[in-house]
Each structure stands twice: as structure tokens, then as C-alpha cells.
Amino acid sequence: MRSKLAVIVAVVSLVSCGATHEFSSGDISTKAGSSVESAAESANILTDQPNELVAMEADASSPAAPPQDPAVIAGQPQLIKQAQLNLLVDSVDDSLKKASQQIRTHQGDILDLQDNHIEDVQRTAYLRIRVPQAKLDQLLAELAALGSIQQQGLSAEDVSTQLVDAQARLRNLQKSEESLLKIMERSGEISHVLDVSRELSRVREQIEQIDARVQNLQTQVRYSTIDLTLAAAVAPQPIGRPLGETIGSTWQDATQSVGELTVGLMQLGLWLLAYSPYLLVIAIAGAVGYRTLRRRPSA
Q1: Distance from C-alpha of 36 to C-alpha of 57, rounded to nearest angstrom
Q2: Are strands 109-116 and 79-89 parallel, antiparallel or unpaired?
Q3: Cα(102)–Cα(42) distance, integer angstroms
Q4: What share of the chain is helix, strand, coil (3-state, %, to 5)?
Q5: How large is the C-alpha radius of gyration of the chain?
Q6: Distance from C-alpha of 218 to C-alpha of 133, rounded to nearest angstrom
Q7: Which of these, 64, 47, 57, 45, lies nearest to 1 by C-alpha position?
Q8: Quick one: which of 80, 152, 165, 255 could link to 157 by a disulfide (CB 3.0–4.6 Å)?
Q9: Chain Cα centroid distance, residue 269
Q10: CA 293 to chain centre
Q11: How far is CA 20 from each of CA 15, 27, 87, 181, 251, rounded to the nearest angstrom?
Q12: Taking a C-beta distance cutoff of 8 angstroms, is the pair 170, 66 a contact?
């Protein structure tokens, strides 16, 4: 029971040093080594193991650290850049061809292309471009020369701190993984192996998540995006309709008008039929009154 408790204490101490603290790139190796040594000492006290076991855990938990991004080590800002450019061009088709050629020349890619070509509406085209950050400014200058600039903008986000913290946590978790593997090799009881295996699975899951985040950030830093919109300078003029189409449309309108008139007269007849009793009473009363007036002798 005491040996099982020692293993759990050592595992928790090793993992907590990488999951609960954020380190800078300068002192990460020193703090990781001291945390592993303190975890081994705690396990030695609880189980009364010899000092050789402590030395083995300390040696197993200090593998070579994975290489860091040279730009991060040098302290260069890690920027994610996004640009927007709206142009008014003479020909959308010609501008699309030229823009595609310029993008290929600068080793860029078109991530999205939408060409809105609707009759009697100004034609527009939208492109989302990815280009190496080192070639961003030059490509923007060449794209701007395709037409008249209506709107442009550039935004940048510094993710240097996020990269340093994520890489530090990744190194700590990798050290913890190595220590857990060594503990599994020395554990003889099945219950001990299962406890360490569950903790090892959790550490590996965190390693995969943080490693994916680091790679995603590094990709966004290496490649910038451009949202390019091309709009035609002159909207297309409506083309005159052919004579046959005009005559056909006129005949259709005339027949439709006749139909509407016929329906209207039928509706009127139905209304008169519905009110015919009242209209008959009014007509009889009018006739009687008229005759009465004619028979009255004049003074």
C-alpha cells in the first residue's frame, strides 16, 4: 500500500510541475529538473527506498529537450499578419489572371475564390490568399497596381508569449512522460501499472493537444493571409431585347389583361346576382313611386 502511494505521489508531482506553472524559455530546464528531484525525494521518504532509486528517477526525467524555434529563442516577435485589399479594376477576368500569376510567383496559394457574375449587377470577385510572410509586402504592392484602391488594411497579432509558454509546457510534459515510462518499467504490481498507465495516457493527450497548437501557431506566423476583392469599374449595360421576344412578351401581357378583365366581369355579375332581391325591391318601389307622381292631378 505504501509503495502504491509513493508511485501516485511521484506521478502527481511530476505532472503538476508541467500543467500548473508557466515558465520562460531561460529557466525551464532548471525548474523541470528540480521538480523531478523533489518528486523522487517524496516517493523515497514514503517508501523508505534507497537513494539509488532517487538517482534513477532524476536521470530518467532529464532527456534532451526538443529544439525551439530559432526566432523565438532570438526574441524576435512572432506576428500573425492579415491584410485586406479592395480594388476597382477595368476587367475582372484580366485582373484575376494577373493576380493568380503574381501569387504563384511569390509561392502563395489561393485558399478561396468566389466570382459573382450576375446580369445587370456590378461584377465582383473575392480571393483569400496565403503567402509566406516574408513576401507579403511585395505581393500587396503588386496586387495594388492592378487597379484603383478602394480600401486596404493590415492587422498583426503577436503570439510570441503564447509560443514560449506552449513550448515550455510541452517540454515539461515530455519529461513527465519519460519519468512515467521508467516508473512503469520498475512497477511489478498490476494495480501500480494501471495507475501509471492512466496517468501516462492523460499526459500524452496533453502533449498531442499542445503540440498541435504550437504547430498551428507556427504555421500562421510563417504564412500571412490576404483578403482581395476585385470589382468592375463599369457596371454592364442592359442589352436590348430581340423583336420576337418583345412581341411575345407584349402578347402575353395582352392576354393576361383580357383574362383579368373577364374574371373581373364575372365577379361583378356574381355580386349583382347575390344582391338581385334587394335590387328588385328597389326597382319596384321606384316604379310605383313614378306612376303615383304621374297620376297626381296638377294644380
Answers
A1: 8
A2: unpaired
A3: 63
A4: 65, 15, 20
A5: 42
A6: 12
A7: 47
A8: 80
A9: 64
A10: 91
A11: 9, 16, 49, 21, 81
A12: yes
Locate 118 and state its grid cell: 450576375
Going by C-alpha positions, the residue among 226, 224, 70, 215 that lies closest to residue 132 is 224
What are residue 102's phi and psi, to 5 degrees? -65, -40
> Using CA atoms, how far apart are residues 135 and 107, in angstroms rounded to an integer?
8
Which set of grid coordinates corresponds to residue 239?
442589352
Separation of alpha carbons 160 and 243, rounded Å: 69
Tell me the whole-structure pTM to 2 decimals: 0.52
Half-sphere exposure at residue 219, Cβ-oriented, CA atoms within 13 angstroms: 7
Cβ neighbors of 249 (< 8 A, separation 6 or more) are 241
Beta partners for residue 226, in sequence order = 83, 129
Decide if 133 contacts 222 (C-beta within 8 A): yes
List the pLDDT tens digit at each of the 299 positions of the chain: 444 444 444 444 444 444 333 333 333 333 334 433 433 343 333 333 333 333 334 343 334 444 555 555 556 889 999 999 999 999 999 999 999 999 999 999 999 999 887 766 788 999 999 999 999 999 999 999 999 999 999 999 999 999 999 999 999 999 999 988 888 887 667 877 888 889 999 999 999 999 999 999 999 999 999 999 999 887 555 555 677 777 888 888 888 888 888 988 888 888 888 888 888 888 888 888 888 887 776 55
Task: Report the DSSP pairing between strands 109-116 and 124-132.
Answer: antiparallel
